[in-house]
Specification:
Radius of gyration: 19 Å
Bound molecules: oxa(dethia)-CoA
GO biological process, one term: fatty acid biosynthetic process
CATH class of the largest domain: Alpha Beta
Strand content: 15-25%
CATH topology of the largest domain: Peroxisomal Thiolase, Chain A, domain 1
Protein name: Beta-ketoacyl-[acyl-carrier-protein] synthase III
Subcellular location: Cytoplasm
GO cellular component, one term: cytoplasm
Helix content: 25-40%
Pathway: Lipid metabolism; fatty acid biosynthesis
Structural class: alpha/beta
Amino acid sequence: MTAAAVLCGLGSWLPDGEVTNADLAAQLDTTDDWIRTRTGIRTRYVVSPGEATGDLAVEAGRRALKSAGTEHADAVVVATSTPDRPCPATAPEVASRLGLPDVAAFDVAAVCTGFVYALATAAGLIATGAAGSVLVIGADTFSTILDPADRTTRAIFGDGAGAVVLRAGEPGEAGAIGGLALGSDGSRSELIEVPAGGSRQRSTGRPAAPGEEYFAMQGRPVFAEAVRRMSESVEATAARLGWRVEDVDRVVLHQANARILAAVAARLGIPAERFVANIDRVGNTVAASVPLALGDGVADGELRPGQQVVLAGFGGGLTWGSAGLVWPELTPA
Ligand code: UT7
């Protein structure tokens, strides 16, 4: 029988630098009221000068390994779109710093869907026998690519890292990742982008135009797509697992906007109370969003062993994806 990837460890890490809505209102033309009512966010955390995505990834990864009661993983997959450097990938150095020399290590870039894509990649490594255990880390430092003058993106995004350990096990076990459903629509890539800094701009020989090195997002169409794609994704995962949508106990969506969570709940006909939410405390942490929500979901008593849980992400690419599991016994670190 093909081995399943079983969730057995969970770790979270946030940088020290808290930025409250009041802090933003002191710098930009915005208010605490606008940010809370339009996004549900109260605060977010950002890295200090010199601190990078890999630093957050190491801390979250260390905690996930501790939570799993192990010091070893056969592979490290880092989901990020803010790597420490454009080249090489961030994962090999993270693996090395975690005391995992010689293991397979690479990055997955799917922006806010990165963690779900990395989970699917790790499940594939385990199913093929290429790895018996995988450390999957979602880590991003969007504060390093935001336009300091952009009140919308600065209100939304925060930095952070979340990690899980997956081990080879049986498909019927609690914690076994199943129902994976992934998708993309590259015809709409311009809705979420950093226009400059890649080969498209660099090969022209022209320097980037002012502001093109910053992250840019067209909020309204992205909002509509996020609601549609994550709703359809949750339905696809439930169907693949043979679950009825109304029997899903907890939904853990990418924390992009509290209004997106409410809209997906309404569209699916699942009570909003079944949606795990920590966006008020951390903002939109991109690839770290889903694993940080898992950690807070357990800490808040929202995620409990035996529940049928569906995870879903949506982000730049455009990309989306989802997975399901019966929540296992574990203690996050
Ligand atoms: O994580 C990956 C996927 N990302 C998402 O899913 C994000 C999806 N989009 C969103 O969450 C929302 O579209 C935003 C939070 C980004 C924006 O909220 P919105 O309700 O769609 O606002 P809007 O862009 O339509 O702007 C409404 C107004 C505008 O002013 P005018 O043109 O009506 O005068 C904006 O300039 O709100 C203004 N605005 C702000 N006002 C105060 C935009 N940002 C701010 C701000 N403070 N921070």
